[in-house]
């Protein structure tokens, strides 16, 4: 199917209607610096602020989509037009909005009209959307006998302005003199003014074109006087850019906010492929809404689109083209949401399930990535499906006026904190990009005063980027009584609740003044936050003051204690207090404020302080004790490591691997045996001396030991001990002979015994050695060096030591071997 620019225009028209969202707050102000999305000029002072309980839903909009249906429109585009018109009735997020669809061409002969009312202004509630869905089907049946092929811009604008201004006042607009909803015309065209063949503009082609241009200027002036904005969107190669600019600038120039780009302007795209994006950006700019573009795919598929935390009203639109495509919606927590009704604090309503465009309207949407699952029966999944979200954030404001009851001529500070209807306190400044905050002070005895608030860290603002907007003003000297303060937030996609803060001008110096502070803290449910109230009572009698909470986050369970205090007369007193956070309080930043009221002075509010408390989930057992557990584990590991190292060193000290035992007799080596790895478990090596007949004696290891074996052992301190078979254990030193029966044993190699293993006597080093007695046939045996005598055959001997000076050691050891 081939597309023409006319068909694209019709698609764009329907999509504009479908994407319609609530405008920013309408006020009585139209001048710069005054509350004013879609405002009309005023000639009198501002009316009182909005009621204390404004409608919570998105603000409504009266708008008309005016579609060029001149001769260049191809039949194949009419089906697309119907689909786009379905987007109109499905995508609107405010059920109080009203929409009209007008087609236009020209009138060139009897029986023709330049315009067609396809849908007159219709409320976009559940029933109205069905009505709109039915009437837009007329776009598919063009009646060329009743409409000429030209392009009559003046007639199209006149028809739209008339429909938007002549309708009866809608309920809830506040009566006569109150401004109604914003009025907007979206004009879609692929050409330029062409009334050369329309007799009502003159007798010849040249004069008709000239007269048509003059008539257009007149109709634009009428639109401007009626407060109707005009947003032209052109596409194709025959666009008259100058004419579109004239139409944008000729209508009402009010904006939904002071953000650049929200003032009506024309836009031109070159191809039909750009229309969707241009359409959404144009519509978002016109009504201070925001568009979130999601993913695209063919069934079966999961598409996603993200709704930010600041959004309070939204519509997920699914352009499925084929009514057979089935759609299921899942919130960011992965839960399937109902097609109609309430679920987890949100309200849902699905429409268009049996049409080419389906939409899920959500009030108080859960922020995050929404998943849209699409399925299609065989033969119906060949076209790409796209999901998008239109959203707005209607913020509630918690306002602190300091002092709470100012005097005329006194400078006051205003601090504002914002949260959504779900109770989400806005803490991320990136969510409030391009936001401007202002306040209007009105009251008795002075003209309204407007001033701005900022979050830039400059005095009086405490900290930049903490999303607490602060400003100051001086109460006019003529103020005599009641005061009313209304804050305004202006940004694309954001409107404020416009709830007023009421105060009374203090007469003379106040007798009781107060200062109030609340700690900033992060707590768990069930914990308390501390605060301090300082009161100066200059009166001669005591005053009872009440501490209260205001503008609390929905669902918060907060209790302030004590609830009342008594300020003694002629004294300054400090009262500590606490705010207890109930166990059912939702996690997140708490909104609201603590106020102190003087009940002895007609419940006069003395002071207020915003809460800055974040409630977090209680820690788990591991989060509480992990440091102790890890620390204990480290200590155990260190102790184990220390013990292991000590045992390892002890084992290494006791190890006899590499030690060589040499068997000698009268200084001559007879045999040797080296201890190999794993032959001395526990530092013990058992061996024996084999004396075969007719051969020299040899050393042999005895695995497992036994009573018939000699034993060489090394202690944990590294000292060598020798226990001859059947004898007592004696110390030995490497390289020095020790008696072993009829032979001598010299231990060589291995680790030397530590010098501290056996203390040496004072005066020098002592050398110990063992020598067996010489055996004779029955005579007396000679003693060892040092004069030791032995009884023949007994094997007795003397262990003698010498000092460094060669004198005998008095501590000689006498024993039997």
Annotation keywords:
alpha+beta; 6-stranded mixed beta sheet; 8 helices; disordered N terminus; 817 residues; 9-stranded mixed beta sheet
Short description:
The chain is an alpha+beta fold. It contains eight helices and 46 strands.
Report how far apart the termini are. 120 Å
Computed structural class: alpha+beta
Shape: elongated
Poorly predicted segments: 1-54, 172-177, 753-817
Q: How helical, in percent, are the residues?
A: 10-25%
Q: How many helices in DSSP terms? A: 8
Overall pLDDT level = 78
Strand percentage, roughly? 25-35%
Number of strands: 46
Overview of the structural elements:
There is one protein chain. Helix content is 16%, strand content 35%. With 817 residues, it is α+β, with helices and mostly antiparallel strands. Strands 7, 9, 11, 12, 13, 15, 16, 19 and 21 form a nine-stranded mixed sheet that branches. It has a six-stranded mixed sheet with strand order 3-2-1-4-5-6, sandwiched between helices. A five-stranded antiparallel sheet has the order 37-36-38-39-40, with no helix packed on it. Helix 2 runs antiparallel to helix 3 and helix 4 packs parallel to helix 5. The N and C termini lie far apart (120 Å).
